[in-house]
Structures are given as C-alpha cells and as structure tokens.
Write a structure and sequence with these properties.
Shape: elongated
Radius of gyration: 27 Å
Number of domains: 2
Distance between the termini: 107 Å
Helix content: 25-40%
Strand content: 15-25%
Number of strands: 7
Structural class: alpha+beta
Amino acid sequence: MATQELSGASGAAHPTSNVATFPAIAPGHHLAPVALGAPGPEQKIVFLPCPDWCSTNHVSEWVHFIEDVDHTGEESAVHIPSFINEGKPVYTLSATVGCDSMSSDPRMRAAHVIVGDEGSVDAYLTPDMASEAADSLRRLAAKLDEAARTARLHNQHEAEVA
C-alpha cells in the first residue's frame, strides 16, 4: 500500500488526466499571445509558437483568423536623400526577415527576407537570394564610393582652376 501511495499508482484515474498536454516549443521559438478578432468583448487571445526573431506585437496587430498570423523581424532601412529634394528621402530600401507559417507556399512558410522600397511590390528572397542581393549591393556601394571620390576630385580641381 505504501508503494502505491508514493507512486500514485492505483486503479483510480489520476486527478490531472483531464489536463491537455502543451506541445513542445521548437528551439528558437517562444509562445506569444495573439489577438483574434477586432478589439472588443468578442476578441480572443490565444498563444502560438513565435520565432524568437519576430518583433511583431501579435496583440496590437490583431488578425481576424489564425491563418492570417505572420511573423516579421526588425526592419533595417537605408534612406537616399537628394540635394534637389531636401528633407525627404527620394529612395528608401528596407529589409527584414519574415515567415507566414500558415501559407500554402512552402517558401513563404520558411523564413525568408523581405526587401521593399516603400510603395512598390516587395521582393521575397530565399536566404541564398538575399546573400546574392547583399553581394550586389556591396558592389554597388563600392561603385558609389568610387563615384563620390571622382566627383570630389573633380570639384577640387574645378575650385583650384577657378
């Protein structure tokens, strides 16, 4: 009898047998609250696995359906000004990590990089595509530096001649 009492083994059902088990959370994820439905008395809060890199506030950025939940990381951007149009960038290019875990497209379900330019269609890149784009942008940055040096030297020469 003492062994039965210590082990909890008995013919009676265990008192926690009606408790649902919580699914294991994958490494690199955490449970995040998600608001389903418009704010108000009918809105529900559920908890879903969320990648650790996700910066979306899934409560303030509520969705109508659980299928609409997607994940987005912190956005990085570069703003290109113009001395003709001062005070407002002419170009803005941004990049972030994203995934849509409920998408029917496996590429959208996987983590990918989203590149946008404020107003046009976003580019969705696989990690390999993003690395290639980064290499191209580094080459462009080197050419931009070269063009800046050329313009600076030209302007110095023009100032010396004048």
